[in-house]
Every structure is written in structure tokens, then in C-alpha cells.
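Worked example 2:
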Amino acid sequence: MAVLKSVVLRGIKRTFKTAGGRRKIPLVAGHKLLYRCNLTCDMCPFWRRTDEKLLGLEEEIKIMDSLVRAGVLFYGFEGGEPLLRRDLPEILEESHKRFHTSLVTNGWLLKNRIREIRDSLEFLFVSLDGIGSLHDRLRGANGSFARAVEGIRASRLSGLNVAISFTITRENMHQVEEMVHLARNLGVGINFQPAFNYSTAGALSPYGAKLLGALSKLLDLKKAGAPIVNSQDYFRSVINSWYHGVHWTCKPWLTINIDPSGRVVMPCYVLQEYSSDFDKPVWDLDILSFWNTYDWERYEKCNKCALSCYAEPSLFSWTKRATVKDFILDAIIFYAEKTFRGSREGEKEAIVDDLARTRLPIIN
């Protein structure tokens, strides 16, 4: 129980204390450890970029400490392909001491490296964009589907919480239901998000009646209990915005993104295409002061993308019972079931009681 309290309860209390009377704090952080990748996905612009000098462990720790001061709870690492970094286990270990830590990988190297990283992760996302040869074609490498599935199975055997990350494109949206079945058979969750057309990548963003059908099907599957990570609100909001003109309020200030050189990407991942206008690293920036003087209001009506890292935090509200269940209670129960199997029901109940007594920051 100490582990869960450390990750969830201590972090929430820290964030509430950090927020004080401030209106805006970033609760989620994403960091690209590098742009280099061993796959060449058509819809991705990042593997096409050349890395500057990568940060070392000491600099990565400086980033983490600055995020702690800002009140960040959740820290996700991505690339490129993070498993190409030899020092990834050390980076994740340091993050695990401070945050709920997650990683996104294409799975090619996962089976061989899972033992190095499993103890420092709360959640692992493995990218799969289709069944078999379709995935291989979209990812630009034969055998990538098989390698990813092997990595998922090895990660599950290691006791990790795992989900498939599926990017919906024009070429794979007909397979969304098959992907849900695959996730169920593998014993993992699955997260969906439509591709965004970056200026330096293939234009594969889905649209029209076929996308509406896919999103509607996923919403129905979610309601029926399918292992879909997205909230019901996510699918409803994308459908309402893109097809009925009813926009959700985007809150990009809830998520802070940091490029491989340690610079903040503003105002968000998408509009800047992960380019930074800063000439100094995040550890030399007073994040909270900057966050609360920046003009975020002009982006509140932006629904150009449906990236989960922005849409889901924006949609969350403590006043919505369904979203609290999707985001908080289900996650805690899943974690508790995994951590305290069998004879420790009292400890699971104590966790939920502790959370209920914790004063939580209002982000809606």
C-alpha cells in the first residue's frame, strides 16, 4: 500500500499545496527523450528530425525536479523510440521516485529490455496500428507487429499495466473493432486517437462518415465494458465537435511538453509540431509564474486535434461521476487488484478511503 500512496496520494497532496491560490498548474508532463527511431511510420514527423545533443541523466533529473516544483503528477516518456537509449532504466528509476511514470514504445526492443525497466513504470503503452501486415506497412518494417505483440506478452508476464496505443488513420479505421478484440485476447487495454496531419509527415488523418462510424462503434464498445482506456466523454466530445459543431473546452495548460533538449513546447504538442521557441531549458524557467501569465484563453476553442494527452485532461471534471469513474476509480481499483491480490481487501479499502479524504485540486 505504501507504493500506491507514494505515487497517487502524496502526489495529489503535493500538487494541491503547490497550486495554492494559483489558477493554472500542469498536472501532466510529456517528454520526448529523442527523435531517432528504428521505425519509419508514415504519419509520424519525428523520426525525420535530427537529434541535437541528448540530455544526460543529471539534466534529466533537473527537468524532473522543476516539474515537481510545478506540481506535475504524471510523467510520460516517448520518442522517437525511447528504448534506443541505453540510460533509459536510470531515467525511469529517477522518475518513478517522483511521479506516476509511463512510457510509449513501438515494442521492437521491448521483449529484450523489459526486465530493465519494469520496476520503474506504472503504465506502458505499446503502439500498434493494425493487424499483421497492415501494421508492418504503416510502420515501415516487416515483422514489427510480431515483435510488438511479443513485447506486450513479455510485459504482461512481468506484471506491468499495459495498453495498446492505436493511431486511427484512413488506412486502418476499418480495424478498430478487431484491435479491441486483440487487446482483450492479450489481456491489456487499448487507447485510440485519430492521426493529426503534421506538415512534415504523410497526410493520413481520418475524416468523414467512416471515422464517425469508427468513433461511434468504439463508444458503444466502451459502454459495453470493452478494455478501452479512453473515457466515454472522449468519444462523445470528438463526435460532437467534429460532426455537430459543439466544441469542448481545450485546456492545454494541464499538460506540459518538453523536447529532447529540455525546452518547453508552447502552447501545445500539435500547434507547434513539437518545436520550441525557448532558448533555455525548463529547469531555468519559473514554470508556475509563466503558466499563470501566458495567454491560454485564445486556445480554449481549439479542437483541431483529439490527442488523448490534451483532450482527456481537458474533459475531466470532479463533478462528472462517469469521468471520475473512468479516470480515477477504475485506475485505482485496477492497480489495487494487481498489487494487493487475495487476502488484502482491507488495504484496498483503506486506499480508497485515504483518497476520498484527500483534498483535491479543482481543474475544471
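Residues 2-357 form a domain with the TIM Barrel fold (CATH 3.20.20.70). DSSP finds 13 helices and eight strands in the chain.
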